[in-house]
Amino acid sequence: MFVDVHTHLADPIFEKDLGEVIDSAKKIGLVNIISNGVSIETNRLTLEISKKFDIVKPALGLHPFLIKDLSLEEIEKEIEFIKKNSPIAIGEVGLDFSQGIDEKKQKAVFEKFLGLAEKLKVPTIIHSRKAEKDVFEILQTTKLKKVIMHCFTGKLNLAKKLEDAGFSFSIPPIINHATQFQRLVEEIRLTSVLSESDAPVLSPEKGKRNEPKSVKIVVEKIAEIKKITFEEAQKIVFINFKKMFMK
Fold first, then answer.
1. Which of 67, 133, 134, 208 has the greatest number of beta carbons closer than 10 A?
2. How far, in Å, are 157, 221, 226, 244 from residue 27 at the CA level?
3. What phi, psi does 18 have (nearest 5°)?
4. Are 236 and 190 in contact (CB under 8 A)?
5. Would you tell me how many other CB atoms lie within 10 Å of the CB of residue 163?
6. 132-191: per-residue pLDDT in tens?
7. How far apart are CA 25 and CA 35, in angstroms?
8. pLDDT band at residue 118 under the 50/70/90 scheme
């Protein structure tokens, strides 16, 4: 059994063949797909998709890229919407300092979402590009333990600190050629590893659309790096998923 803890099925690229994408995922043994909202619009579409397909579960949030055009009032309203709709996780949320977007506003919004995760008692799926240290510092002010660092590209010494704090890392399919993710998996414990696709981006085949089914590649590479069987890696990642998401 496979799991995808971070994908974006509400992306327009899946509009015409989403059913086929889900069927392909089921054929390789995918049993849970957590589709992450990133905006007001995709949060609603993610909920619709989760009602249509039994293996899809909704994570709702606002991507740090997409808060720049929202007022604090609109953000608060969306947080209330998310609260009422009981998602399986809060995500995708976090900080991204790579595009010059107001860092102070990002931090304020991120803290609001972490507070929401605490209230709902659900995991948080975190984006942390060029802001890993700030994310860690903010997380230390919370009581959150069920935290997933999505597609983490920070320094390995910080990854160890995050792991020691009890947090997990979701690994994308580009691990098949990206040495940064290979080194991350080498360094962290198997109990801290989850699989994600981040579809439709981060395809294991450059230039092609990514799909949830590519998490199989993640598990294969984890097994290779950790020098265990594919079956063992598959079992451990699924156990990690259950501990994170199943109450």
1. 67
2. 38, 20, 26, 24
3. -60, -40
4. yes
5. 19
6. 999 999 999 999 999 999 999 999 999 999 999 999 999 999 999 999 999 999 999 999
7. 13
8. very high
